[in-house]
Amino acid sequence: xxxKNNSRRNFISKSALAAFAALAGTKxxxxxxxxxxxxxxxxxxxxxxxxxxxxxxxxxxxxxKPWNAETPPHLLDPEITPANLMFVRNNGIPPxxxxxxxxxxxxxxxxxxQKKTYxxxxxxxxxxxxxxxxxxxxxxxxxxxFNPPAKGNQWGLGGVACTRWTGVRxxxxxxxxxxxxxxxxxxxYGADTHLSGDSSKVVISRGVPIxxxxxxxxxxxxxxxxxxxxKMNGYPLRLVMGGWPASVSGKWLTKxxxxxxxxxxxxxxxxxxxxxxxPVPPGTKVPDEDMKIIESMPVKSIITYPKTGAIIGKGQSxxxxxxxxxxxxKVKAVMVSIxxxxxxxxxxLNPPKNRLAWQRWKTRITLPEFGYYELWARAIxxxxxxxxxxxxxxNPKGYLNNACHRLAVKQA
Amino acid sequence: xxxxxxxxxxxxxxxxxxxxxxxxSVLVLAGVVFMIQLTYFPQFxxxxxxxxxxxxxxxxxxxxxxxxxxxxxxxxxxxxxxxLIVDDGVDLVIRTCGVCHSLGLVTQNKADREGWKDIIVWxxxxxxxxxxxxxxxxxxxxxxxxxxxxxxxxxxxxxxLEWHDL
Lengths: 412, 166
Fold this sequence. Notes:
- The structure holds 2 protein chains of 2 kinds.
- In chain A, 11% of the residues lie in helices and 31% in strands.
- By secondary structure, chain A is mainly beta.
- Chain A has 2 domains: 2-46 and 297-411, Immunoglobulin-like; 95-293, Oxidoreductase, molybdopterin-binding domain (Sulfite Oxidase, Chain A, domain 2, Alpha-Beta Complex), CATH 3.90.420.
- Strand 17 of chain A pairs parallel with strand 4 of chain B.
């Protein structure tokens, strides 16, 4: 039991008057439906805990239990997102104790040739190391814009990062275990615990088809930006599979199952990380069987410079720059508009550092006269698909909002 | 069954018995308070005092007892520590919906009554939320009244918090 729960129990059992109020307010209200392993919350517990462990307080906090926080777009300007600025999307409570000697990763499942367990040292010593810059974006990034609103944390633009990951290839480890010919999917399990306090409940266990798992860039990683992975981002070990909803890249990794069918862990089914199989009008209730799993994320870009709200001196030109990415694909063009999409200016675009890394783009802009302008950025992937300027297809859980990023500037 | 298991079962049984006694004694106590109030102080709760205190609705309906929100923590109709809008049922929402996750998950979301009901059912089916019993109605009313969707169109106007010279 953690400290917080202890203090909860104390609060409930302490002073007489408070005890009556608490008792009156809780036992009667909740009656026998209230699970015995939980205590109702007391007012003394509402204070926001101090910032997110290991993270900059410049992050925008969406939720402090579980921690969910995003990066303001202008702080995503560096080529590689600094560790303390990478977004956090926790579904449960991260582990609090880490014994690196004892931490193990087990591979098993109906389509595995054998069950095999690796210590961190064994992973490190027995397999070749690889380093890639990989873009991870939360499937719900941009959810806050959907109308009617979609349930969940209301992400703005900053549920995305491109960081430098080091580890071993997932395929090398899977091949070491041995795949049966029936291998179709992998699923992960991590060491985080469920918010309800029920230790038998799995927080989240998602995965990818075996083809994605076997790609060169699919890593079992222990380092980010040359250092240990931040605690909130999965220390000491996690999966990293760039270009897909970040929820397939399991954190605090302890187990991988090789399945002979689509993995069916919590948050694979129902409406989670799924969109309708066919376009629906906004606000439609879509039955579970008409939903399909999100795979590669769509093309998207952000403007990281200037910060929204910039006032530009008369006659001055200024640089506009950002990053663009397109799931499994490459971005082939980025353009910027200062007139609400009437005309577009083509930007310089760098190739990705490696497959699945985001791409730097930039251009110079001159505003024609005094007034209010919006900078809009629009990327196009190698198959010719571009970002929409209004919200893309509404879906019940508000995934895949890749509408073009807009920010406000003025000429003085 | 090992001895340890037995011990667990006993512990569980004692815990449940204690819970039942707690519930029963509080119900009796509330009943007595209710009777006394009805008999001797029939006007006691009809005051128009806006302060929310621990006991001013206890006797009215023991199912929706409020807890003591500190009036100095209420600003512009918001209970600052929880971030929730102060309205009937806010205490129930704090107590119920703040147990597993922060109430930030409540204040961020907007839905009509049916939408909130769906969220609750989803948590009951998949996330270990218990049956809310008679409190569900008050909770849904609070949520639907205070966290209802607003039509935002297909794209909102941009909001700039701070203009700065480049």
